[in-house]
Design a protein that fits this description.
The protein is mainly α. The chain has nine helices and no strands. The protein has helices at 13-18, 23-46, 50-60, 64-76, 84-98, 101-113, 118-122, 124-128, 134-146. The longest helix has 24 residues, at 23-46.
């Protein structure tokens, strides 16, 4: 995917440490590890905007914030096999297709924070052109221009 060094994700070593623990204790430890990993990744992606975003999530529903951190970012987006930067690149593509402009802008910023080269993001409109409406490609191209992402 990206050519800038070896950015493979080695995955959470926390799960390997707790697999031989009592099942109930192990489950609680895994949930804690997932939540910690999720918040760490969330903070990498959202940077200075992390706390306001988390407050908005909590205001939406009291348990939503924790579900996002533990499940979405901790269990899913932090799992081994694909580097966080590569996941963000795919998130930008998916959010373009889903027409989620606010989230798209946040994840373009997050992809750049995680080290995705601007030229890799700039390639997305070309790669998605055959599958998405022209309006979606135009929106993405304009957004990427705001972040100086050019081929």
């Amino acid at each position: 995917m990206h050519q800038s060094g070896d950015r493979r994700d080695t995955g959470s070593r926390d799960h390997a440490k707790i697999r031989d623990v009592d099942p109930i204790v192990g489950h609680a430890l895994r949930r804690t590890a997932d939540r910690d990993n999720g918040e760490r990744l969330f903070r990498q992606i959202y940077g200075d905007a992390t706390d306001p975003v988390l407050q908005r999530l909590a205001a939406h529903a009291p348990t939503f914030r924790e579900a996002v951190l533990e499940d979405a970012y901790g269990r899913i987006l932090s799992r081994p096999g694909l580097a966080a930067a590569d996941r963000e690149w795919f998130a930008v593509a998916a959010l373009t297709a889903l027409d989620c402009p606010q989230q798209l802008k946040s994840h373009v910023r997050g992809a750049l924070r995680l080290g995705v080269p601007p030229s890799d993001l700039a390639a997305l409109p070309h790669l998605l052109r055959a599958d998405l409406p022209t309006a979606a490609i135009t929106k993405l191209t304009r957004l990427l221009d705001e972040f100086h992402c050019r081929p």
